Q: What sequence folds into this?
């Protein structure tokens, strides 16, 4: 998947320069001001934001503060660009939640490395969550707001895990979000669709039940919402690279 970057700057030359530098590696969305940026955020899955600080209307500090305080977008890393070479400006950028702060003029190599590191670190966390049987979903949180969101989402899935037909509409209603907004949030935060997140939650619960050594596999498959044990076994193998039986055999003997 090609990551999507939103670039916000009222300077056309900067937008053109960054398009040349980043366009071959990432899917880019360009905005000349905060209002246009808001429209893009409402319509697209964005993985990272690069914003100038000095802009008419909504400046970079205010934009960053708005993004980081909104549950729909607060997981998105933000790089602030500025010509302000002052300690105070740097502190203010960090206070509003910026993930990185780069002074103009900057080298394209520095920016590319900063972007790659932010995205790579998030991908590592996502992959770790998906492949680790006992890792809590909140490991993917990048803020208290994200943590509360993921906790509420996970609690709902866990409490309905025996139900085979949990879907995005049920989740959206519980989270008080539109279907589209919830999809974008989950996809951007975890790289998973809501269905994939539900499936992984079922399989993680199954792994914990297997570890308890109190139930047969066909019982566990039903306890986590699978009507077919063969489908359960195939999905377990796909996510954890071993069958439920192989996983059981790796557990310490009593």
A:
């Amino acid at each position: 998947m090609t990551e999507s970057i939103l670039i916000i700057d009222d300077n056309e030359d900067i937008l053109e320069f960054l398009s040349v530098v980043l366009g071959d590696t990432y899917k880019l969305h360009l905005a000349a001001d905060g209002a246009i940026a808001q429209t893009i955020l409402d319509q697209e899955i964005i993985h990272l934001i690069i914003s100038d600080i000095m802009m008419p209307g909504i400046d970079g500090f205010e934009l960053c503060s708005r993004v980081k305080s909104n549950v729909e977008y607060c997981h998105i890393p933000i790089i602030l660009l500025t010509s302000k070479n002052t300690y105070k400006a740097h502190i203010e950028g960090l206070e509003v939640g910026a993930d990185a702060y780069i002074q103009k003029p900057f080298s394209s190599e520095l920016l590319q490395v900063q972007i790659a590191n932010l995205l790579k670190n998030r991908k590592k966390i996502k992959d770790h969550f998906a492949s680790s049987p006992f890792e809590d979903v909140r490991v993917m949180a990048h803020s208290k707001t994200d943590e509360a969101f993921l906790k509420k989402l996970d609690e709902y899935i866990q409490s309905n895990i025996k139900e085979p037909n949990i879907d995005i509409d049920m989740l959206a209603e519980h989270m008080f979000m539109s279907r589209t907004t919830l999809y974008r949030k989950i996809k951007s935060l975890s790289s998973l669709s809501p269905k994939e997140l539900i499936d992984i939650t079922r399989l993680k619960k199954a792994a914990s039940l297997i570890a308890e050594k109190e139930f047969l596999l066909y019982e566990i498959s039903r306890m986590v919402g699978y009507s077919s044990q063969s489908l359960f076994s195939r999905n377990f193998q796909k996510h954890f690279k071993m069958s439920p039986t192989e996983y059981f055999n790796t557990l310490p003997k009593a």
Residues 4-127 form a domain with the Rossmann fold fold (CATH 3.40.50.2300). The chain has two domains: 4-127, 132-250. The chain is about 55% helix and 10% strand.
